[in-house]
């Protein structure tokens, strides 16, 4: 449910023990909260990336660039890649700390433009990492290389849904959604990204 909606939860009892209701918990490295807002998870990743950025900032004049890049690939990139399909479209907070980290790797000024730095280091920005994983998901969907429950998603082209032709028939059908939860789903995000 949304954070504004009040929801009365039923008591769940397993083996005569009542299950405790918690606001958030960690599950396989993801911090889930009762509203699935991903805010707590992103804050946790942000604090980890900030620590790694601080380490790289202290090392920027001591170690060579290839060593700092190795540190980035081991301390920063795994946190950006892990389950990004779940929370990646909400990851704008992590953009700033990633840019700060790249500036530290390149010994650039605090306000240096980062596009040339990302290009020089062959690194992807967090939004590009998210897009890459969405495209990989679609590739696996087309080749039926996903778990069965994900293959049941309805990702159709426009021409598959009607009997007449239009200019945008090769585009994917974008479902009509009313809620923010649906806008964050892969079945909505994927057609939006691919139809551009």
Strand content: 5-15%
Bulk shape: globular
Q: Which series of helices and strands comes N to C? A: EEEEHHHHHHHHHH
Ends: how far apart?
A: 31 Å
Overall number of strands: 4
Rg, Cα atoms, Å: 21 Å
The low-confidence parts are none
- Total DSSP helices: 10
Helix content: 40-55%
Secondary structure: elements and pairs:
Blueprint: E1 13-14, E2 17-18, E3 24-27, E4 30-33, H1 39-59, H2 65-75, H3 77-81, H4 84-87, H5 93-105, H6 115-121, H7 126-142, H8 148-151, H9 180-183, H10 186-194
Antiparallel strand pairs: 1-2, 3-4
Provide tags for this entry.
196 residues; 48% helix; 10 helices; two-stranded antiparallel sheet; 4 strands; mainly alpha
What's the short story on this structure?
With 196 residues, this protein is mainly alpha-helical. Helices cover 48% and strands 6% of the residues. The mean pLDDT is 82.
Question: Can you walk me through this structure?
Answer:
- The protein has 196 residues and is mostly helical.
- It is globular and about 60 Å long.
- The longest helix has 21 residues.
- A hairpin with a 2-residue loop joins strand 1 and strand 2.
